[in-house]
């Protein structure tokens, strides 16, 4: 039976990019995905690339590498990722001070420019001027996430990689504990190495084999609106994004995550909207910290809450016909991903926990593939899952 150099579990943007980079480096690769049409975070992403938002030496370097790569990725993969740049409009709530909000962004690589209410509405005519005290704007990258993931997969296949639609049920190990493959719904596959890129279900998948890892997930909810003629000029997001604070606070007690059924914190809603090149829209986002990856939420109540909040900011969009969707979003304690070999378990690696995947996955997938082929990389070393041990 064939033994691959790498099995990559999960074909969202993370797994697709990693499988491609490993194949490009010369490894034999099998990419596993449990769904023919994945319903993952890539599928329901806004598609934004916040290359301006770096705040540390590591993120400044990676974000610069990322935007340079995005600009040539369509050519490299021979497929249109729909990359373009647009104006990001960060709305400032009526009860917030615009100058103080602008100062909170002073440390980022490219600080957004402060706008008056009038200037914000000129930039985005669909805005409700009575719902804001001002805005911030900066150029922002944008892609079609699904098309980009598919472009990576097709390029990986052209390089000789393989893909199987199959759900992972467990792992193969030797008597010494080395991981040597996976058991799936369609068969058994052998490999020298396994990379877990399964996003929000990565923690549960590893836990089933006795591996504890400090990786977490939120339940994200959005509305998807079919193509419309009405045009949204900008990508709209709140200047004070609550999601990152929610992520940080929810990781304080790791043990809570091993108890299915916990709601660690109340849900939050960051009202935003983006329009894709085909005219379709994504409106969101509700985030819930529920420790059960299969937890059920009240979709009707969620949709009402989401639509009400969007209507306050963008009245023309809140009641458009559309479909509510839900997915899991992986994250770590420090907003940086977990990348590298899992200690004490030979042959299995983690490549997950990207709070900002579309800006970080591209450079880190390339760096990781080179790292495992023998090249030293200080950044990959700093992202090891051992950094909290």
Q: What does this entry show, briefly?
A:
This protein has helices spanning 13-25, 57-77, 98-103, 117-123, 145-158, 202-207, 243-250, 299-313, 357-372, 378-382, and strands spanning 3-9, 29-33, 48-49, 84-93, 113-115, 132-142, 162-165, 168-173, 179-184, 188-196, 216-225, 235-238, 263-275, 281-290, 323-331, 338-341, 348-352. The protein has 389 residues and is α/β, with parallel strands linked by helices. Strand 13 and strand 14 form a beta hairpin.
Topology, pairings included?
Layout: E1 3-9, H1 13-25, E2 29-33, E3 48-49, H2 57-77, E4 84-93, H3 98-103, E5 113-115, H4 117-123, E6 132-142, H5 145-158, E7 162-165, E8 168-173, E9 179-184, E10 188-196, H6 202-207, E11 216-225, E12 235-238, H7 243-250, E13 263-275, E14 281-290, H8 299-313, E15 323-331, E16 338-341, E17 348-352, H9 357-372, H10 378-382
Parallel strand pairs: 1-2, 1-10, 2-7, 4-12, 10-17
Antiparallel strand pairs: 3-6, 4-6, 5-6, 8-9, 9-10, 11-14, 11-15, 13-14, 16-17
Helix pairs in contact: 1-5, 1-9, 2-9
Protein name: FAD dependent oxidoreductase domain-containing protein
Organism: Trichormus variabilis SAG 1403-4b
Keywords: Oxidoreductase
- Poorly predicted regions are none
Number of strands: 17
Measured by DSSP, the beta-strand proportion falls in 25-35%
Gap between N and C termini: 38 Å
Order of helices and strands: EHEEHEHEHEHEEEEHEEHEEHEEEHH
Domain FAD dependent oxidoreductase: 5-366
GO molecular function, one term: oxidoreductase activity
Protein name: FAD dependent oxidoreductase domain-containing protein
Organism: Trichormus variabilis SAG 1403-4b
